[in-house]
Amino acid sequence: MVMKVRQRLSHLLLLFFSSIQMITAGISEEGDGRDNNNFDLKTTSYDVYSPYQYPWMMLNYFVLLWIVSSVIKYCLDNYKGSNSTISSLTENQKRNIVTYVIEIVGTSLALYTQIYGGVDILFRLKNETTRHRVEMTILSLYMVVVIYIWEIIYRFRTGSALLLHHIITLLLIQLCLASFSDTENLSILRIGTTLLLHATTEQLSFVALLFYRLGLFPKYHNLLFVSSAVQVFLAKTTVMVFSGWLYYRTIFHEFEYDNEFWETFWKYTFAPIVLVLYGAQLYAIRVLYLLGHRQPKTKVVRSIDRPIDEESNDVSKDLTYSLIPIIN
């Protein structure tokens, strides 16, 4: 019953964010260099084949994710090797492994697209940027949206902390793109691109989770978890500081408001939402760190089928043990 309710809510979430994102679709014309603070955003009639428009992106990329995930899942279901860890995986654990692989590959592609399209926008390396680079930057945001919505639907169990993180990320992306569409100010896209680094710099965490779940190189699991915790903490804290500086300089000193809704959102709503997002990520970092310092077989505290904790951000709820340490 709970599973059916969660699946229905996931599909409603997909439809909700799809309808919101429709207002940001429309960058399809080629253009010459534009000023790096303001961009002439000219929307045209709907082009179903434009990869930079959200409906096309959702349909094709979502189908692609399901095809790739089905192939990986088929390989896990039909594994005949000697690795007993893989052979004993539950259905939920197999789906989480599929999620790790999709996240590693998908966020890496999004990061490449983000850097290629947004490096000039983010660091103002040039006085001008091109429509193509703006489109690529927006595409990287769309890629993360599709991956997160797919993950919410695909997983059997999604922890409340992870669900909160994904919903906040999706909401921020939608609002940043909608604000950019209304204002045509690249400063808004610059803030959104900076915050996207929260989602596109988590590969090491997923590698650690993948190695643990598959039983690969077990003697390095603790090192991988600790390293990923340190890397994620440094990356996300740096992103928070840099985005906070951009936010303060842009929203309170450079941005000229002609819309009451966007003024209210950017001045009074945006910062609290981002702080909640950072808090959810700190929880994930703590879990990774504790996993890296777990001790061998000390005290039985829960059954093998019970999750150690609710997941947050990139931390999987399927990390289960029959024995976990007592942390002093």
Describe, in plain words, how this protein is organized in 3D.
The chain has ten helices and four strands; from the N terminus they run αβαααβααααααββ. The chain is globular. α2 (54-77) runs antiparallel to α4 (91-123), α4 runs antiparallel to α5 (131-154) and α8 (203-214) packs antiparallel against α9. It is mostly helical and 328 residues long. The chain has helices spanning 2-21, 54-77, 84-87, 91-123, 131-154, 160-183, 186-200, 203-214, 221-254, 260-292, and strands at residues 34-35, 128-129, 299-300, 323-324. The strands form two sheets. Strands 1-2 form a two-stranded antiparallel sheet. Strands 3-4 form a two-stranded antiparallel sheet. Residues 19-35, 42-46 and 297-328 have low confidence and may be disordered. The protein has one domain.
In the residues, how many domains can be counted? 1
- Low-pLDDT runs of 5+ residues are 19-35, 42-46, 297-328
Q: Quick one: biggest sheet?
A: 2 strands, antiparallel
| Helical coverage, percent range | 55-70%
The secondary-structure element order is HEHHHEHHHHHHEE
* Rough outline: globular
How many individual β-strands? 4
User: Radius of gyration, rounded?
Assistant: 21 Å
**Continuous helix count:** 10
Provide the β-strand percentage band.
under 5%
pLDDT averaged over residues: 78
Enumerate the strands of the largest sheet in spatial order, edge to edge or round the barrel.
1-2
Kindly report how far apart the N and C termini lie.
39 Å
